[in-house]
Amino acid sequence: MRVVALFSLLLAAAPLAAQGTVSGQGYGYPPGALGTRTQGTGGALTQFDEETPVNPAALLRWGQPGLHFQYDPEFRRVTAAGAPGVRTVVGRFPVIVAAIPVGSRASLALSMSTLLDRTYETTNTARRLVGAESLYVTERLRADGGMNDIRLGGAFGVSRWLSVGVAIHAITGQNQVIQTATVQSTDPALGDSTGGRFAAYDVTLGFRGSAVSAGADFHPTRSLSVGISGRLGGTLRALRPDSAGKDSTITRAHVPDKWGVGLRYSGIAGTVLAANVDWDGWSSMQSLGDRAVARDAYTYAIGGETRGPRFIGNIVTVRAGARLRTLPYLAAGQDAKERTLAAGFGIPFAFERAIVNFSAQNAVRTAGASRETAWTFGFGLTVRP
Amino acid sequence: MSVLRNRLVLMAAAAVVATACTEKLDSGSACPALCPVEQLGIQDTTIEGVTFDTTVGRFPPIGAESEIPLVKRTDGALDVRAALRFDTLPYTYASKVTHVPPDTVDTIASLDSAKLSFRVDTTMSLLADSVTFGAYDIDTTGVADTVTAPLAQLFRPDRLLGTARFSRATISDTAALVIKLDDAKLLAKVQAKTRLRVGIQLLDAANLTVPLRASNGGSPPTISFRPSRVATGPTVADSTNFIVIVLQSKTPADDENLAFNLSDYSLVVRGTPPIPVGVLGVGGLPANRSYLRFDIPQRLLDSTQIVRATLRLTQLPSPTALPDDSLSIGFWMGTASALVTDHVLAVQLHESIIQASDGSVRYGVANVRPKAFATSEGATRAIEVAGLLRAWFQVKPTDRPHALILQSFVEGIRPGELRFASREAAAALRPTLQITYVPRATAGVP
């Protein structure tokens, strides 16, 4: 019941608004589907973390039924050339996973993760030509929502040194996009008639897509693991209700392909060191948009975790890592780069039936002269009742 | 103890999640450099738009006026009078004092103190230092009920019933104006058991407009007199026996509604000149309305967000305009269905003022605000009709034509008139519609 109640809280939570950022271009920012534990390592454990729905082979690590969810508020400061710095906050619930073992050598898991988060709010005032008049037009654009990746995956332990996994993905989600404009008229008589402020549009875009993925977790030695995974994207459609209220496809593209490889070394007692490389084929989403330019991107991560101090009788695992990646969409016409330093810890409770993980990531995102710094804090709870 | 502690930890974790969702955010701007989409693609087009237009009169219909305008111009360009019908005159009366037994009546043998009382609307008036009203007997036979010319000829001295001159200061909305009538002429009508039809005319050589409150406006003119059963005239004892005669028309006998309306009506002896071809008229006496039907490209209505829509009309000077005269007109969305082919009916079916609960006023759903223009000017007038196009978004023109109706706010009360070039005028003068819009085709798509 506690879990149900917590889920209810999560589902009731509204997305929080932010504003135009380096990371919020195009269809949004990719949190990476990283579980809180992996976030603490900068993403280095991406291929090996059962709470990170990337490599389905990692699902075998659940071992018993489990549930994981997390909340990641992000505090940003954005500085654009010629503009004052702006602080905003955006809240995310990027990963939810429910897993169940099937026999002693297989696991199934259903997860939902954020593929792209498009939550922002921008306000821009500029002089525009409206009819024959040059008027001040204040445009306010607010977007809420994003694309979610719902994955049903299974893992199978082929042998002690190899496990494999496959998954099917449904890409869903919605973006409510509201754009309003306020025309500062020189003719008071136009005030009411034009509304002064008018809704340019209030649309809700829906997304439908599919993909399949597969992965393997290979242990050539007792202390070394190699994880590989790949996702093959199917068709991705953006939908909008037509005049009859039925969803109709307005743009079409492909779910980005993705592949990744990671190394995990546990040869030092109580310590895990890892590295990871991901490639995302974001450019396959280009035709889903109009003006936003999507680019394929690599993500490089390195990090690790080790035993730390005891807390209420339990061993605290501490983590650290770093990540370097390119974001999917150009910002201000430039590639948007992100450099992240991360740290975190995890504390088991209730005889390790529950684990609370915390992560803190400091990211610097740059695109040309624009710079964005962000602190993202992850609060994850994993329960294995 | 450890179980309790673990539960507390779980609850604390839930609380962190729950409270974090209630953060109140500020938003700011790093635009336009980082705005995720480009500025609104505001586009602009100008079309003729009007596919049909016409001028329709007369409004209000004869006899339906709430106020009857009395109009006089020094140049004779306008001459509007009032016709009042008192088709039932009493020839007996029941004296309150002299009768024995009390249920008997006396025949009127004489009368005095005959007077015509009426109220005027000073807010709509154009007054001089003084105003002189003349009341004439305009009863005649063999003339159709609604014709004007034969009645206009009856405003002559031998038919004069009385005159009254009022200084500007004595004319008010609350006090009735009184014209003393000729007792002998009224007695003759009473004793002949005939009807009395009174015409009222302004007699001063000045530019005057005095709207007279009509029966449809709730303050009908009346005639009153003091009767007597003796031919030598009312005695002191008759002083309380005043008789008040109310408006009544018995003709046309075959149309009760029209007969009712014709109890008082405006007699337009010389009204505003007819509207020529290529011109649209609004207002005037008798008053006109203009009907404009539009054909807006469907793509603009259903695939764009209308920012502004400016209807440009070329105003032409009114031939009866006074130098400082202006007229306020409303622009109403027509609500007549496509089944209504009679334009006289179509211009009467339109939106009206909506009074919101907060006291604010909207001019229908379209909320096109009224405009006041000087009637003597020739100029291009811009009317913002964005609300009209937004309202038409949901209306198929095959179900309800996209029509705009121009109507004077003092219709039938003041003589002001506006004229605009119609779609049949020279190309440079025709109505145009400039539409500023934002395409919705890629709305929300980054």
Write the layout of secondary structure elements.
The complex is a heterodimer of chains A (385) and B (446).
Chain A: H1 2-12, H2 36-40, E1 66-79, E2 86-92, E3 95-102, E4 106-117, E5 120-130, E6 133-159, E7 162-184, H3 190-193, E8 197-218, E9 224-241, E10 247-254, E11 258-265, E12 271-280, E13 297-311, E14 314-326, E15 337-349, E16 354-367, E17 370-383
Antiparallel strand pairs in A: 1-2, 1-3, 1-17, 3-4, 4-6, 5-6, 6-7, 7-8, 8-9, 9-10, 9-11, 11-12, 12-13, 13-14, 14-15, 15-16, 16-17
Chain B: H1 2-20, E1 43-47, E2 50-59, E3 67-72, E4 79-86, E5 92-93, E6 106-107, E7 110-118, E8 130-137, H2 149-152, E9 160-167, E10 177-180, H3 183-191, E11 196-202, E12 208-213, E13 222-228, E14 243-245, H4 256-261, E15 264-270, E16 279-283, E17 287-294, H5 298-302, E18 304-316, E19 326-333, H6 343-346, E20 353-355, E21 361-363, E22 371-374, E23 379-384, H7 386-392, E24 403-408, E25 417-421, E26 432-439
Antiparallel strand pairs in B: 1-26, 2-17, 3-4, 3-12, 4-11, 4-15, 5-6, 7-10, 7-13, 8-9, 8-11, 13-14, 16-25, 17-24, 18-23, 18-25, 18-26, 19-22, 19-24, 20-21
What does this structure look like?
The complex is a heterodimer of chains A (385) and B (446). Chain A has 385 residues and is mainly beta. Chain A has helices at 2-12, 36-40, 190-193; strands spanning 66-79, 86-92, 95-102, 106-117, 120-130, 133-159, 162-184, 197-218, 224-241, 247-254, 258-265, 271-280, 297-311, 314-326, 337-349, 354-367, 370-383. Chain A has one domain (2-383): Porin (Beta Barrel), CATH 2.40.160. Chain A is 5% helix and 62% strand. In chain A, a hairpin with a 4-residue loop joins strand 15 and strand 16. Chain A is globular and about 75 Å long. The termini of chain A are close together. Residues 1-19 and 188-195 of chain A have low confidence and may be disordered. Chain B has seven helices and 26 strands. In chain B, strands 3, 4, 8, 9, 11, 12 and 15 form a seven-stranded antiparallel β-sheet that branches. Chain B is elongated. Mean pLDDT of chain B is 87; it is low at 1-30. At the A-B interface, helix 1, strand 1, strand 2, strand 5 and strand 6 of A face helix 1, strand 18 and strand 26 of B.
